[in-house]
## 1
Amino acid sequence: MNHRKRWLTTVVAGAVMAGAVPAFAGANASTADVVAADVSPQLSVLASYNSGSGESGAEIVAFDVTTKAMLVTNGVLVRVDIVSLADPAAPALVRTLDLSGYGSAVQSVAVSGGVGVAVVSGATVLDKGKAVFFDVATGEVRSSVDVGVLPDSVTFNAKGDIAVVSNEGEPRCVTEGARLPTTDPLLAENPEGSITVISVRNRGRWTRAQQVTFGRFDSEAKRAALLASGVRVGTWPGSTVAEDLEPEMATIVGDRAYVTMQENNAIGVINLASPKVIDIVPLGTKDYATTGEVFDASDKDSAFNQQAWPVQGMYMPDGIASMTAPWGQPLLLTANEGDTRSYFSGIDNAEVAGQECFTDEARVKDLPLDPGVFGDTATLQAQAALGRLKVSAVAPSHTTSGLYDSLASFGGRSLSIRDLQGKLIWDSGSMFEEIVHTADPTQWVTSATTPAWATAPYDSRSDDKGPEPEGVVVGRHRNRQYAFVGLERAGGVVMLDVSRPTAPQFVQWATNGGDISPEGLAFVPAAVAPGGKALLLAANEISGTTTVFQLD
């Protein structure tokens, strides 16, 4: 017999919401797995830096040990804000680095030993971007170099002599030449995804930049092998594999970079010593019908209705981090946000309704289901059941004789821990959705007031991708390892003790009123943090704020 335990939390608008400390165990955690846990450190808000630019005024944050400053991207003003944390309780803007001369939008920033690097997209999202290296202490640009199309993230290796840029290369519904809008995906422009590996010397002067592409997977045989393994390629009509792969975020383990390919539900493995693609690892799906996992599938049921459904959940991670297990094995942690493929005609990221040339998104109620597989399809496709859920209309959803016999939803709504070969060690399952509901049950239904840290009432996201875990970082504190996961839609940061990677424990869901939609996270260990206490920095995309949490 399963006994569902609940835990108490306190929600205070404008302050941290801290919970008691349950734990979730097992490869696929559910609410039945809640057990008592030891007392753990807690996050408390020290201060918040407001860019003043609103949405996109703060997206990615990094911390420079040398200058004790945090670097925050400002996509609105195409700059990097360099903010002193000499007093973590009083962040102070030191200078801004104007990058408008290098492109149209700052996408990401990283730092190592006083050298910063920002990646900037080109004049349009179909042009090559730039990696710009600069001195954090002075703001002096030291060098810049071309990268791929639509650079999405940048990260340094541990030594700081290699920077890795993930170039997403998203399609746009425009034709070549004048780049006029088109609704024909076969005419749309679709740049190749790529990885740029940059060697860095002399405090920010690059010496070599190598572009890693995926063309060697374009043959019919290799394309077929990827599809058979579960990698989502071929969803865009007429695309090559190289065009279809969209690198997103990266973490570095030794001389390998592990890069999420969110839309492809895969991780790319890149050799940095001799830059090339080693492997593309499929992440598979979670079977909500058979594994005991549950989720709320409807935004029209006016209730928290977690249950198992006949659906496959694609993990589709965005953020990725790495850690070393107690037994010495490197592990990967992924925030399984999920993403549909809906592309528009705007080459400046504008999304104009009715000008999509392709989308793989459909609601279950609009798909012809096979009654031999799903049984009573009318009941299943009701709005309060599975009808509202958004699923992929293409692979791995599958049709036979025009009827769908399997359905795949976007995102795992979870944090996963895997080995370097992609084998799943642990997944948080329905934990995040359960945490959000239990902490604030009166605000779950769509008629409730949107919390001060969320983008929408909680239940309004049930038919989409749930709380949407976006970014993840790992930090060591007092001989234990913690993972911090930002929830893009529900808001706030979930803290987990991952010291035992096979059985992580939930510690806290921390929110701060006024912070909306955490995007980038950075952990600052106590040994290098100003004031001697570990910090967590969270950049919030919608509110344009970056909050300094202290780990007490």
## 2
Amino acid sequence: MIKYLFLGAAAAFTLAPAAMAERGGDGDVKIIYWQAPSILNPYLSGGTKDIESSSIVIEPLGRYTETGALVPYLAQEIPTVANGGVSADLTAITWKLKEGLLWSDGSPVTSADVKFTADYCMHPEGGCAQLAKFEGVTSIDTPDALTITVNFSSPKPNPYGPFMGGQTPIIQKAQFENCMGAKAPGCTEANFNPIGTGPFVVTDFRPNDVIQMAANPNYRDPAKPAFATLTFKGGGDATGAGRSVLETGEFDYAWNLQLAPDVIANMEKAGKGVAIAGFGPLVERLEMNMTDPSSDLDADIRATRKAPHPFLSDINVRKSLSMAIDRPLLVEVGYGKAGRVSCDLVPAPDLYAANNDYCMKQDIAGANALLDSAGWTKGGDGIRAKDGVRLSILYQTSTNAVRQDFQALIKQWWGEIGVETELRNLNASVFFGGDPGSPDTFQKFYADVEMYANTFDGTDPQAYLAAYRCGNEPKPESQWQGENINRFCDPAYDAMLDELAQTGDLAKRGEIAIKLNNMLTKDSYTIVPLVHRGRVSAHAKSLGGVILNTWDSELWNVADWHRIK
């Protein structure tokens, strides 16, 4: 039986007990992600598979625990106003590195590496997938080798964007200093084999296939990790990944088992492993392309709103597409108890959740009536058109059994309102990869509608919502990095983001965040939420120390994993 948890932010942080006698004494541990990593640099890819695989090797100053609490990793403590680490006027945060930290190559970790990491991401000629985390940063001071002060342009009530959580780890200046700006994607050795502070180091990386790692000889805890080697296998599908842990025991940990609940339950009967699940802020949704994706247009036109989408620029069309969807059926088919209908992009934590219910019920008749009133009339083939423009959608997502079931159902419902739909599914390693040369990434969005899920580190959604700021779209000059995937742009939204950044009162922050959520969803239907997903993974019964974390990398505490004997 799957164990379901709700991961809030109140419980105390606890680490798994140290069950290993010495570093490397437990042999090999095998992890499988059916979305294969394509790069080990989260600054050049927003894909979860790349962020989480790299989190084994490179680490931030602090992390979020399974409850959303903040804990230090490379830092001595979490800076706060109370301990003097955050300035009284909230315009600066000062971090102190732990003493004696070493990179895996044996060189010391210093404040210069932290400052460099920010400079790397914020480089004006580069494209950083995590740029929103550094919003408002004006400068970084390093008065000594262990001290880093991040200065903000205005009071920052939530100063934990940079260097907090798996999305913004510290990278080594010596390794990456010749990889700034436009040079970044071409630094293959650094991007594939980062020197890190984490419990493991890369010994061999085959993109979109397998990563071999070994225990970091310079890891700060001499008793960890318990495993001498780590095999990170990528690719295949969720079914194969689940079976490899729950049925055959070939692997120790399988991530993101996006499978029907009865399928997982049947796998568990083999007795090799257990499935675990937790609810964080993860939402499966549709992104509506606000630009024209036509291949007849130049790349820079397709990347920005210089050419509005020929029919999705009409809110009536976007709203009708949402109204036609039976979300309770999607939950039943795809997730069971590990899913909930969501009308919101940010469904958790409670402080920031709008709890909208406008999308709970399917309304085919209402969707048809709305399109009729907007002048989209059905032709002889049943497909609607207006001024020579047909409602013909290319709807893409990654290859996955649940997502293909969703595609088939949504295509059927859209057909009932006169919308023609072509389905396209892409290899997840390519779709969620950061290859600027590929036309098939979710960042380029060369389709009308695409479906995926992502989430954010920690419990404050400010940086997540800031992704949709005007100008933050992936484009050629940013090497196709950027978080504003659907090219949404509203000056009123940006102004409200600025207000959120300057608001300290938690209740008021919640109110503003809910307004921002609504501007993206029920007010504009630019984002069409479908399912609030519980994250379901599995581990072997012989693997101890696993603590599922939906607020940070799932592999956040891999240093504590050990073999139960």
## 3
Amino acid sequence: MIFQTPWFLSALTLASIPLLIHLLRRRKVVVVQWAAMEFLKNSLKRERKRLRVEELLLLALRMLIVLLAAFAFARPVLRAVGLPILSRGSRVHAVIVLDNSMSMGFRELDGKTDFERAKASADQLLSHVLQPGDSASLILLSDHPVALVASPSFDLELVRQRLKSAKLSSNGTDNLAAAQMVNTLLKASKTPEKEVYWFSDSQQSAWENGKLGNAKPIWSELGRLARLTWVSVQEPGVRENVAVEQPVLGRELVTSQIPTRIESIIRNHGGKRKADVTMHLLLDGKPAGTTRINLPANGSETARFVTLFTQPGLHSGKIEFDSPEQVDALLADNSQPFVVQVREKIKVLVLDSTIDSDIEHSEAFYLMTAMAPGEGAQSIATTRHAASGLSKLSLSDFEVIVAAGVSKTSPDDIQSLKQYVQEGGGLLLFPSAATNSELVNSELEPAGLLPARLRNKRTLPEDQSITLDPASIDHPALNLFKDATQSDLSSARFNITTPLLPIVVAEDPNAVHTMIKFSNGEPALVERKVEIGKVIIAASSASTAWNQLPLKPGFVSLVHQLISYLGQGASARHNLLPGEMVSLHLPITAARKPVHITYPDGTSAQQNSVLESGGVTLPFTAGTQVGITKIQEPVSHFEDLIAVGRNSNESDLASSDPGPELTALGVPAAHLTVAKDTANLLDSVHRSRFGSEIWRPLIWLLIPLLLLESLLAQRFGRRG
């Protein structure tokens, strides 16, 4: 306990006045012999004891009143154990953490969003709590935190201006990432007294990274370096919200010849069922389809559309609710943009190790049938060729090369394949009975064309055959097969394989990736990125000699997905989340030329392309603006579209109590203050800084004690 006005403690000496009065008023005993008093002797003894008790009781009560009054005027302050109390003249460095993630756009009944209330509360902190001589830093909290004011600024008005200009983003929330940035700023600050003010909606999903092993030391260090005041801007109660998740295509290869299925999961994060919800599909700004769905409480439903693109090229689209602004109070996730690259056809060169045999008996038969399964319009144009003599072909005329039975290759052919892949081509390798694993390893691995070393061929008994494991899929090109109801790959049995041992590329540890595994955990498809091209190798053949997969309906979809993925060449991904990075590949004529970037809100910027060994590239990072970003380079007539979507985790508005979360992560309870809303922020800050003053309770206690003293004095005096 400390005292705000300790000089009033000198008034404690006044507590001796009642004692002095009591002692002075004590009468001296005079013995008078009187025979009549002998009869009252016993009665006087009892009365004398009663009077003494009453006098001592009044004495104690009066001394207590004086003591309490002195304490009240001295303004005592209570503090938690271990919490240092600031003096009134202490200077502090305050780090303000402002959550600007997508969920902060939720609009309450008063018409204000969580973000607007958080900004107003932080502004109140800067204008009414921090004093001249204090310094402040400002961080925007999301899964990509940004320091608007990093170094401690004594210009609080500047910090207020930066705060007012802060904008809501479409990013997710990651409290741990922000805590790491806060610790960096705190350790660089030379101000002894440090405070952190955290304004957030306390979203539950923001603590997911808190489960990581390095989270506790980070939060413990923050609690050691500063006081933490957490301000929750989310009002109590259940928040209803429905969201459109990022659309997906029914197949990777989209052409102007075949109708395309476009789907999006519509998720209901509330406890109320929503029936007959209307969804719209827009393509290039025009209506292209409508469907109705029923959303169960805390459940989801898939909105499906089928459309035919009439023109090849890049097309932008959007899936949204009917009247999105009236669906719920979080408008940001009521629609979702996407970009589709539509092609005329993909040209594929099929290298057949059994070119001399009839096509029906060759290794390439099932592959070519899968690429062109019917008599109608086709998306893939195939050319069959022998596995040798590649150096005499113009490989650049083909988007993908498929080797149906990789075998011995000449040095000239290897060099041609290497140059083809490095320049952005796609190569798909299947083993066959003619494959010599050791020979393939010795020829293709030094050229950088082998994602995994081939082991010797292994034959399994029928009762020990293995299958593909859809649960092991870890690649966007195969996401379609995660849902077995759409296309089931797990029914095909594999009896013969060449087990794969993925290669570790020292220059780029992420260059090699296992796309899907067998049921025994061994790799089934392995990808390797080579410069701006890709190579995929399979562990089993593309014919029925080794497995049943070519006889299954899913084989056609699998081949189309792999061909389309490899056929993208150097083109970029077109659908990103905020903060994701991609490298765009431009024509050589665009080298070191300014590239124009137009963002969804109409603002624009320029960025120079980079000439590297792999070609002309433009590193692009998806910003916080959701929508379609257009990228153009006028000299080479290059044009690309990027759709920036929303983080689906942000749509779940469930909140958690930050107090238990933070104490469990190592923030000392004595250094933590949780303000349940912005209204009691000033009181919370005052208590965390200066402790809790108790003079008001002392005054309220004095009033009944004074009344009691008056009543007892009157009663005892009347009886005396």
## 4
Amino acid sequence: MANQQFIKGVLKGIAASSGIVIGRAFLVHRGKMRILQKAIDPPQVAAEIKRFKRAIERSKHQLLEIKEKITAEEVRRHFFILDVHLMFLDDTMLIQDTIEVIKNRRINAEWALDIIIGKLNTAFDTIEDEYLRERKSDVNYVAQRIFRNLMGSGHDDLAKIKGNVIVVAHDLSPADTIQMNLNHVAGFITDIGGRVSHTAILSRSLGIPAVVGLQTVTSMINGGDLLIIDGYGGTVIINPDEAISEEYIEKRKQIRLLEREVLKYATLPSETRDGYRIKMGANIELVEELPLAIRHGAEGIGLYRTEILYLNREDLPSEEEQFQTYRRIAEGIAPNSAVIRTLDVGGDKFPSKYGYDHEANPALGLRAIRFSIKEPQLFKIQLRGILRASAFGKLKVLFPMISGIPEVRKSKAILEEAKGELMGEGIPFDEGIEVGAMIEIPSASIIADTLAHEVDFFSIGTNDLIQYALAIDRTNEHVSYLYEPLHPAILRMIMGIVEAGHRAGIEVGICGEMAADPAYILILLGMGLDELSMTPFYIPRVKKILRRSSYEEAKQLLDEAYRLSTAAEIEDYVKKKMAERFPDDFTLGYHWDGTA
């Protein structure tokens, strides 16, 4: 398929950062390094370990030097990514395990490090969460830097990029991106990566169009080739003719006008024409995303995923470290609230002292609230951190993967123990902190009427709820077509959760991807949801739809959808009605989710 697309001059990848740009290719030659494998004699072991440690120190020095040279404030905001890499260079698992392999197997440092990186990559591949799985790339960025220092290979001076170029690379580390003169970079294209890789995150934050996951693009493009990046549809066109270039220039002009218009809605209330208010929250993984969320009109953090604090390390985050992180969120989003979701990964992702082996089906195994309850001390440390931070702003606690009332009650009991300890220590916290249940398992949706009396709010995780309810894995290409958010069963399930919550007097929100799709906004509005939480980028677009709609017309659309029998019928009907109702927002064949 890739070869056929190349012959036509068109490549299809993953839309990582929206925008359309035309420019000349700047090819970064940095393929996978060939690792020398060599046995060493016992007397050489100490010298080999010393050589490895020198490469580590040299790598640290290079990253710190990059940080010192950067003065542009918009780039300095992303230094936290370099700090993650510096953290890896201090990671005992990475360093000590490599040293142990050098000692025990008496092999050279490059070979030993390659063995350890292979094990870490295998571990990352088992992680369910896409964002956390993509952190494998950080390990490999760091490893490549160490390899180059071990082997005496040079590092490209990307600061010398001139002109208005499109950077083409196998992959780009944050260190690569940060040291470029971004005034000369029109776009990014890479062989590997996904929507939550650092290249994608940085590109979106900096407003630079990018297409990633093109597999072999570096072997298909020559330096100086004329390229078009369509960051909405994930398309790259190589050496387009004049007619195609003019077509994309016109598309770019129209889309930029639309985007400027949409951003005007960021600071406006999320209210329908007939006065129905629905809160707009932001889903974030990093504290550093707060300014982006606020800039795009977030009225709070609807979901902060805490998993990033626990992974990429051999030890566990301390209570103090977690407190400081949650405090930054509370203060940064004040006076609005932030929902802190407790740990949502499995026990097999933790240090060996916890003794959990890899599970055959981790998605249905010991994960999320099940793991937290099984490890109450670890759970309590996180809850104490959240509680302490609640004294500095409005925080809420969200328990993930709730399947029944016993899990809620056990979780609340541990929360009460943490409160009691803090009271005894004289440490302030919000004694009335709200507790929520994440509804993402069908059993929880069925008993939502009784669950609603146990918590202060519901947050519907549609990503997993749809997968579990329809028994499909949306990452499996053979069945992904069955991932249907507008399946009649899903609509009834969500409606039932909303009604159960409202009867009990609690708020109900959605924090899954469904909340950000413009085609689904009126359907969700018609259900009477209290909050929609999404990636910050989509908030102004959703506000625009809401402010040009009425609650009554949304309920009518929902009623009509209920009369249809299949997901395909509902999907066709809803998208047709939305395109008729909001023609400007479905222009040029593009949807806001980046699909064409």
